[in-house]
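Translate structure to sequence.
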């Protein structure tokens, strides 16, 4: 038996593998995803968005940042 001691009374979702012995699986990056880590500027912008929450739309101009950085933060909300 492949599976035993499964929990009772919960919905299970079966997974099927069709890979035979000696075969391999190749992963491809789709939808413009790159192999590079995110840019530091993007990570900083995300951190600012998360920490400011809903106030970021009205409070961005109060941050001690140069105007170009304020403009960078605003459009991606």
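Result:
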């Amino acid at each position: 038996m492949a599976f035993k001691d499964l929990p009772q009374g919960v919905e299970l979702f079966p997974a099927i593998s069709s890979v035979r012995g000696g075969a391999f699986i190749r992963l491809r990056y789709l939808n413009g995803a790159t192999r590079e880590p995110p840019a530091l500027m993007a990570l900083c912008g995300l951190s600012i968005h998360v920490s400011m929450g809903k106030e970021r739309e009205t409070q961005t101009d109060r941050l001690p940042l140069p105007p170009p950085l304020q403009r960078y933060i605003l459009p991606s909300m």
